[in-house]
Amino acid sequence: MSDPTPADQNPIRNPETEVTREYLLDWNTEQLAEWLVAKGFPKFRASQIQKWVFQRRASRFDQMTDLPKDLRLLLDQNFDLFRTSTAAHQQAADGTEKLLLQLADGGRIECVLLRDGPRRSICVSSQVGCAMGCVFCASGLDGVERNLTRGEILEQMLKLQHLLEVDERLSHIVMMGMGEPLANLPRVLSALSVAKDSTIGLGISPRRITISTVGLPPAIDKLAAADAPYHLAISLHAPNDPLRNRLVPVNQTIGIESILDAADRYFEKTKRRLTFEYVLLGGLNDSVQCARELVQLLRRRTAMLNVIPYNPVPGLPYETPTPSAVLQFRRTLLDGGINAMFRQRKGDEIQAACGQLRRLRERQPQVVSIQPSKSS
Ligand code: SAH
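# S-adenosyl-L-homocysteine complex -> structure
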């Protein structure tokens, strides 16, 4: 038998009158309109509410001052506007901010705001954990717990938007947080449809919204058929199957060739240049030979190659490449005519790479501000 709860913490509950609270962000405008009409309110209130949430940065219903008071009250009784709590908030000297959010069921996810010149980019998670098992990545070390809902994906965007100053606007979204977005495609697309909506949503052009994938060909085809041509980034990380099988184990049943075929189909259908991501791991995939093989693979494709030095994960045996390896790798790609961008890491000191912060944090709220380190 469990311990009896003290009477003062045990309000008398009547299941007949208890309302199930809904998660507003899980509902689209049509669903909300239908609910409002059933309650005797006009349909247009639905888009008015959505605008308050996505454009006017409201965090409570009582801030929605042009709604009738009885409606605000009704919404407050029936809906949760936000459902996550901030378990950690880190700020780096370069303007990068990272949130560790705790979900209603206790799961934890990460999302990041990056400031770069006029850009305000956010990096958003799609799952709790990840099933892909990339050996160097912190997100998948404990496997996947579950998919995020549409609302949980949108809530990350809003919580990051609330970190902005009034004169700052979100400009780019990358689905590069925890999880594999193409393994949760319906919910990711549902959330992004609000992100790109300029009437009631965040109004971010699909060109500025990137979906990053380990490379799941059937889902890439589905994405190509979606209503908006988002920017697709494919995490390649190796130029041949034996090496990719080691680094990205799901490759064993997929293979680079079928991923590149799907990438070609995506380009044919959308005419959007895609990006290949390549995390440089010291001594593993950073040789001149790897660079030459990459040149062969990508030379005739309309794609960009994004090369990112590995951000070491405590406890994992992988290293960032040496400066001279990076230099030679870069020279080989450029000589081969590859359109390659060599990225600087951002937010290193706040563990901004995928899934790193979640592993370091105990379950307690805190705000941490980190001073610039000498090397950044
Ligand atoms: N599952 C998706 C998106 C999430 S990861 C994908 O695989 O693309 C986003 C990118 O960060 C991927 O390219 C991933 O391989 C890379 N990444 C993960 N851990 C990293 C680390 N420690 N340092 C640098 N890049 C990392």
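# post-check
The first strand starts at residue 22 and ends at 23.
Confidence is low (pLDDT under 50) at residues 1-11, 362-376.
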